[in-house]
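ugh ok fine here u go
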Amino acid sequence: MALKKIIPAHKTNDVKYAIRDIIALADSVAKTGKQMYYLNIGDPNIYDFVTPNTVVNAACEAIRSNKNGYAPSSGIKDALEAIRLDANNKGIFNILDAFVTNGASEAIEICLTALLNQGENFLMPTPGYPLYTAVQSKLELEPNPYYLDESNGWQPDIEDIRSKINSRTRAIVLINPNNPTGSICKPETLLEIVKLAKEHNLVILADEIYDKLIFDGAKMTSIAALDDEVSCITFSGLSKNYVAPGFRIGWGVVSGKQEYLSEYVEAINKLLRSRVSSNHPEQYAIVPALQGDQSHLVDMVTRLERRRNLMIDALAKIDGIDLVPPEGAFYAFPTIKVRDDNHFVTQLIKETGVIVVPGSGFGQRPGTSHFRIVTLPQEEVLTKAFALIAEFYAYYRNNN
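structure:
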């Protein structure tokens, strides 16, 4: 019998990851010898940010001490205690469970998998991180995006959320600070989301991976800290705050009422056990990260604020680009007046070597166009990149 083409599962058809999908084009442009300006990847280590020594040393010592076997499925005891204490410091006290995963991404996927059946849906912020649409496709879920309101500082649109809740809705995702906009949810907005979640028996999945990268001396409120009864899982990890994305260490903290969440928590733990364990030696970095010297955060936030301000000033001088100033993380999501942001970004990369990501890769309101900027690069790189964007955008608008 002749061999035939292997057909992949149809659930992969809609799996897209614009942040990395753009790299193939960038690599082809780089091969021509053009100077490239990478404003697309949210990896602090490829720029001038360095993992704190205490974090590195703890992981290295664990490796040297032969902590190289399997870990407990939920994570090592000391790490879990540190994670719970960090949640307490954010005002989260009604903790039912905590667990360590291979990055916050695995925690999010496990929690969605444990909750939703095929054909059900979760409310997903738009714009938002592409991981959620990928998981949605893998689990064969019904898409149910809700919009962030650009005219209101990219706050979640409460009325839009309310209108999207249906009999198959099981959860609402909140990314705070938001990727790709850098916005931070106001407490009054969070309280409205809590109210909706309790009214419709929804689980809140709170992605707070950037919770310590907050600008201008502001404070960020964790949604789980606002109500002792709401069912919530709060996600974080070492990747952003502690400059260690390659460690692949994330975690989730379950809070709410035991009588409502016990079966769901056990379902999560079934999946944790089925994948055996998270990376083991890297878990020993959690305690020194969360409980050790935090001075790197002061330096990191100072540099990110300076680069954020440089970007705001540069974009303000470009006619036809509008920006809601980011309040945290290291992203921005400016509006551009073009018909097709994919085409704009493709031509920008080809002509200038400046790599950004089209807004459609994160979701956006119909009829609008954006692109995402990463503000991690050094100031001289950003200065040159924004000059190239300004020059190219003026040309593009006149010729397209």
